[in-house]
């Protein structure tokens, strides 16, 4: 039974498995049915048979279902076939119509197709044309810029051409770089740059050659400007002082100063326009070349080349001509060339940034200065003519002053002038030795006979002779000395004038000039004149009578020496006094310039609480100015005292002028109203002036001497600040009055301006008792001041 159950279970399982396989076959794609069928043979031995039976049963079931379905749909199928046959005829008719329509449509479409193809071709052409225009529009700026570059090169605008090249390379060409012509342009630009460098360097060489040729003219122009300026200042100073220390008349060789000194030969043309270095030389090549090399990134090469060439030119300029010492024109050409060279360098220094530096110009100048001094020292030693030495000195002074105006140190040149001064004095001594010998040879060694008073006055006007007994004698009479004595005395004075000419414009103090004159005059008397006298007495034709007369002559010459000392002192003192007067005038003019900057608000309600800016600047200027007096040379005690006196006088003059100028401000007739706030502000400024005076800006003042310069202002301001009219009116005219320096007319003028302001600013003052009282007081004081002013006018 167990076996039977197991068999039944297996049969059930097998049937279930076959059912699953059949369902899988029905539901699975035909291509994948192989593995399913293979599983039928992998099962039990009789499984295949059972599966076939099961399959047959399934087929029959499906056939019965198909048959049922066909039976159900057969009539509909028959009806459909019948309908389809009916439609067949209509379809054939429709087919014919469609074919005919297609034929006609094809015939009509051929023309449309042809036109469409034409439109497509035109559209393609239009698109190509648009693209071409766009490309050409991109290329046109490049071509125009390249054309502009060519024009700039042809017109020698190289700096602009470099800028155009830079724009081409960085902006324009990269946009259209795929075209062949742009590649050709890009390859050509470096060559153009090199061409520009070569052309600009050629222009620079031409420029260097040009300035070498024009250096003489540039230096001449610069020296002429300085000479005209000095001549103008000299004329102004002489007109202001009414005198000068230079002896009028002839120079050492008898010519007038204008004839003797070629530097003044063109003074009549001083009104003509004076050309500058920029007018004589076109500096554009060096600017252009500098800019070009800067843009090309090769500035250092250009700077080194320029400096190297200028050093070579400097060495050439510093080489003098062999015969330069023979005429003053040789020296002038030498100075003009050197000066022109450094004027150009100074212009290049200030007009360019870094092409030449101050250190480079200083190096060149130091080299040139050493060479100039050596050349002048050598060539001046050949000069035996004092006139030529004097003209050389004048040239050196103007040369040094001109260079100093351009910022070059020239102290060594003025030191050289002291060496040349000794040589000049030696040439003068030699010349005056000949003059003295000629005078002695022409002298008759007998007393001077004077027949009339005119002859007597003529002699004593040339020689300081005073003898009471001889003056009492009647004409004709004889003077004890011979004719050589007044002649010698006149020639000694001429020597002093000649020696003084060399000391002009040496920028030395008058004490030093005084010492120079005394030293040279002493050499003339002790060496030259003494030597001539010794040679004279040894001559065989000099007898006893002549020797006695020579002794008398020397005695009178010795007595006249003190007059020569006074003569030298008067010469230097006159010039010193003129310089001192110029100091006072210049200082007052500077104070006036500061005063013009004053901008008081005379109607301000109250003060700012601090002094005005213009006044503080003025006081700082005065402090720094008076400190300069401490640097005046004080080699000698008397000169130190003189310098201190000049400083004290200048300081007192400045304070008085400042006080007077400040006093005139509130009293100006054009000023109509002044407020109390303005008076307070003005008082703050005056206080600063008093503090300056009390700070002893110049030593040597006793007590409050300097502060007294502002006493008039102080008393006037105190009167208004304190409003102490009762005291002023009560004590007026008394020596002990607190407001002794306040003039009634001054107080009246200021008070009337304040009265007008009080009326204007106090519209409702009539409603306030204090204001009404103040107005009444002002009116009362005004009446009393007017009575005082009227009384003063009647008394005068």
TrEMBL record:
- Which residue ranges are recorded for the region named Disordered? 239-266
- Which residues fall in a compositionally biased region of kind Polar residues? 248-262
* Gene3D superfamilies assigned to the protein according to its UniProt record, in alphabetical order: Exocyst complex subunit Sec15 C-terminal domain, N-terminal subdomain (1.10.357.30)
Q: Which GO terms describe its cellular component?
A: exocyst; membrane
Q: What role does this protein play?
A: Component of the exocyst complex involved in the docking of exocytic vesicles with fusion sites on the plasma membrane.
Any one GO BP annotation for this protein: Golgi to plasma membrane transport
Report whether Translocase shows up as a keyword of the record.
Answer: no
The record places domain Exocyst complex component EXOC6/Sec15 N-terminal at: 54-223
What is this protein's name? Exocyst complex component
Q: Which Pfam families match?
A: EXOC6_Sec15_N, Sec15_C
Domain Exocyst complex subunit EXOC6/Sec15 C-terminal intervals: 413-753
**Keywords, alphabetical:** Exocytosis, Transport
Q: Name the InterPro entries for this protein.
A: EXOC6/Sec15, EXOC6/Sec15_C, EXOC6/Sec15_C_dom1, EXOC6_Sec15_N
What's the family? Answer: Belongs to the SEC15 family.
């Amino acid at each position: 039974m167990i076996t039977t159950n197991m068999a039944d279970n297996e049969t059930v399982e097998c049937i279930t498995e076959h059912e699953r396989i059949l369902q899988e076959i029905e539901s699975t794609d035909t291509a994948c049915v192989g593995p399913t069928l293979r599983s039928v043979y992998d099962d039990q031995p009789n499984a295949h048979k059972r599966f076939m039976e099961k399959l047959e049963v399934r087929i029959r079931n499906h056939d019965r279902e198909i048959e049922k379905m066909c039976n159900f749909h057969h009539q509909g199928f028959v009806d459909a076939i019948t309908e389809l046959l009916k439609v067949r005829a209509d379809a054939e008719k429709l087919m014919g119509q469609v074919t005919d329509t297609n034929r006609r449509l094809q015939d009509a479409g051929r023309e449309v197709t042809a036109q469409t193809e034409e439109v497509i071709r035109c559209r393609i052409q239009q698109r190509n044309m648009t693209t071409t225009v766009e490309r050409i529009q991109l290329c046109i700026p490049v071509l125009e810029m390249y054309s502009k570059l060519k024009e700039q090169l042809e017109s020698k605008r190289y700096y602009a051409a470099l800028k155009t090249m830079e724009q081409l390379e960085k902006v324009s060409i990269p946009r259209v770089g795929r075209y062949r012509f742009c590649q050709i342009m890009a390859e050509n630009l470096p060559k153009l740059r090199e061409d520009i460098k070569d052309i600009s360097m050629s222009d620079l060489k031409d420029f260097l050659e040009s300035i070498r040729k024009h250096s003489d003219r540039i230096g001449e122009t610069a020296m002429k400007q300085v000479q005209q300026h000095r001549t103008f200042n000299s004329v102004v100073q002489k007109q202001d002082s009414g005198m000068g220390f230079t002896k009028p008349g002839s120079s050492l060789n008898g010519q007038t100063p204008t004839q003797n000194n070629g530097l003044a030969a063109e003074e009549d043309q001083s009104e003509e326009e004076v050309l500058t270095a920029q007018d004589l030389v076109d500096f554009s090549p060096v600017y252009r070349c500098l800019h070009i090399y800067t843009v090309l990134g090769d500035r250092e090469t250009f700077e080194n080349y320029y400096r190297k060439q200028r050093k070579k030119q400097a060495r050439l300029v510093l080489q003098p001509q062999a015969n330069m010492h023979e005429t003053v024109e040789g020296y002038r050409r030498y100075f003009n060339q050197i000066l022109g060279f450094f004027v150009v360098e100074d212009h290049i220094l200030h007009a360019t940034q870094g092409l030449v530096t101050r250190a480079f110009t200083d190096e060149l100048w130091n080299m040139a200065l050493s060479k100039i001094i050596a050349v002048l020292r050598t060539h001046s030693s050949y000069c035996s003519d004092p006139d030529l030495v004097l003209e050389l000195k004048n040239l050196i002074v103007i040369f040094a002053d001109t260079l100093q105006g351009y910022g070059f140190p020239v102290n060594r040149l003025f030191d050289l002038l002291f060496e040349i001064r000794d040589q000049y004095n030696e040439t003068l001594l030699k010349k005056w030795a000949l003059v003295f010998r000629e005078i002695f040879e022409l002298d008759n060694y007998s007393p001077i006979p004077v027949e009339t008073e005119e002859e007597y006055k003529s002699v004593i006007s040339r020689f300081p002779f005073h003898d009471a007994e001889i003056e009492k004698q009647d004409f004709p009479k004889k003077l004890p000395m011979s004719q050589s004595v007044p002649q010698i005395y006149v020639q000694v004075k001429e020597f002093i004038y000649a020696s003084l000419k060399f000391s002009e414009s040496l920028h030395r103090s008058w004490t030093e000039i005084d010492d120079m004159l005394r030293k040279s005059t002493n050499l003339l008397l002790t060496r030259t004149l003494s030597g001539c006298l010794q040679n004279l007495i040894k001559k065989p034709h000099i007898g006893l009578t002549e020797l006695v007369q020579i002794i008398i002559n020397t005695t009178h010459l010795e007595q006249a020496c003190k007059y020569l000392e006074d003569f030298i002192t008067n010469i230097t003192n006159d010039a010193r006094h003129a310089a001192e007067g110029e100091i006072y005038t210049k200082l007052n003019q500077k104070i006036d310039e500061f005063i013009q900057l004053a901008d008081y608000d005379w109607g301000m309600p109250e003060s700012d609480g601090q002094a005005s800016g213009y006044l503080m600047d003025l006081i700082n200027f005065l402090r720094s100015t008076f400190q300069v007096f401490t640097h005046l040379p004080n080699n000698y005690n008397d000169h130190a005292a003189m310098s201190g006196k000049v400083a004290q006088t200048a300081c007192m003059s400045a304070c008085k002028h400042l006080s007077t100028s400040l006093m005139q401000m509130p009293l100006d007739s054009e000023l109509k109203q002044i407020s109390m706030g303005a008076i307070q502000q003005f008082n703050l400024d005056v206080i600063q002036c008093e503090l300056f005076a009390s700070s002893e800006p110049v030593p040597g003042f006793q007590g409050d001497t300097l502060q007294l310069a502002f006493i008039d202002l102080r008393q006037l301001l105190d009167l208004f600040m304190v409003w102490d009219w009762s005291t002023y009116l009560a004590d007026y005219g008394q020596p002990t009055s607190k407001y002794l320096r306040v003039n009634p007319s001054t107080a009246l003028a200021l008070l009337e301006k304040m009265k007008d302001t009080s009326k204007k600013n106090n519209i409702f003052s009539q409603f306030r008792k204090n204001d009404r009282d103040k107005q009444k007081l002002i009116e009362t004081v005004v009446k009393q001041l007017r009575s005082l002013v009227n009384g003063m006018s009647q008394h005068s």
